[in-house]
Design goal:
The chain has ten helices and eight strands. It has 319 residues and is an alpha/beta fold. It has a single domain, classed as Rossmann fold, CATH 3.40.50.720. Helix 1 links the parallel strand 1 and strand 2. GO terms for molecular function: oxidoreductase activity. Pfam families: adh_short.
């Protein structure tokens, strides 16, 4: 694979800024947290396991101290299980109670092409983990992001949804509202639907931020991180066979490189207002997503359906 033309060394100093990164204890989320903290940001990393979250924080601190013993990164663990809407609500409430400002959110955590499983909330695991829970977290953090945007130059506050080029593998309708679980379909169809949801979500956030008289300008971006060699590939059906082959072919990039597109979208200095609502591949390359991902009516329908579902589950009350 050709070398990436951007790296985190291009990031500005981030002292005084606060970010939330989901799945920050492993993979591209881990490296996203690392580079944000290295530039001086305060970062909340989410982890389903408190033990793994503590381990990740200690590893990041140790790595940073090896480069600069005097520098103390500002890291916080946010225990959150994306398979539990109540856990997501509680995590958002914690951030809202502890932070007076929030400059960005990276919805990075995810699972890929896993066997069919329902959460206790009644949703298919990939759809809830990759899309629904991130929608809910964003919904409850958005007021804090918006008030921060009022106090900072436009473009400072951003939301990044980590999607995938695999979003194009959905069924023809894109989102199957009458059966989002897709139990009888191939697992990658379920994954694709959840990742299409991430792109449509970012588009809807952009449209709402662009409404007339809205002075709370939060930019939103969706992206493909690259073909990243992470533990997701091992857990994917068929991944144990395909992964070694793809490694030999040089198809994969490292988890650290996989964080670059997210870091650029979150804090890169060359992002512009016209980039908000768009979809990017590594690094900083705008790409036209699938036909379904460009469907404004589908984006609106998905937002309204999701809002109704979350209201029905009792997790929509403002914090």
């Amino acid at each position: 694979m050709a070398p990436l033309k951007w790296s985190p060394t291009a990031l500005p100093a981030l002292q005084g800024r606060t970010y939330v990164v989901t799945g920050g204890n492993t993979g591209i989320g881990y490296w996203t947290v690392y580079h944000l903290a290295l530039r001086g940001a305060t970062v909340y990393l989410t982890s389903r396991s408190e033990t793994k979250g503590i381990q990740a924080v200690e590893e990041i601190k140790s790595a940073i101290s090896r480069a600069d013993e005097a520098f103390q990164p500002h890291l916080h663990i946010l225990v959150m299980d994306l398979m539990s809407l109540a856990s997501v609500y509680a995590a958002a409430k914690k951030v809202r109670s502890e932070c007076s400002q929030l400059h960005g959110l990276v919805n990075s955590a995810g699972i890929m092409a896993t066997p069919y499983l329902l959460s206790d909330d009644g949703y298919e695991s990939q759809f809830q983990t990759n899309y629904l829970s991130h929608w809910l977290l964003t919904y409850h953090l958005l007021p804090l992001l918006e008030t921060t945007a009022q106090m900072t130059p436009e473009g400072t506050v951003r939301i990044v949804n980590v999607s995938s080029m695999g979003h194009a593998a959905t069924l023809k309708e894109g989102i199957t509202f009458e059966d989002t679980g897709l139990k009888g379909k191939f697992t990658f169809r379920r994954y694709a639907q959840s990742k299409l949801g991430n792109i449509l979500h970012a588009r809807s956030l952009h449209e709402r931020a662009s409404l007339p008289n809205n002075d709370r300008k939060v930019w939103s971006i969706s992206l493909h991180p690259g073909n990243v060699d992470t533990q997701l590939n091992v857990k994917t059906l068929g991944g144990s066979t395909l992964t070694p082959i793809l490694r030999c072919l040089g198809t994969y990039i490292s988890p650290e490189q996989g964080s670059y597109n997210s870091l650029w979208a979150l804090a890169g200095t060359d992002l512009r207002v016209e980039h908000s609502g768009k979809y990017f591949v590594p690094v900083a390359v705008e790409k036209k997503p699938s036909k379904q991902a460009l469907d404004e009516r589908l984006a609106t329908k998905l937002w309204e359906w999701t809002e109704s579902e979350m209201e029905r589950k009792g997790v929509l009350a403002r914090i």
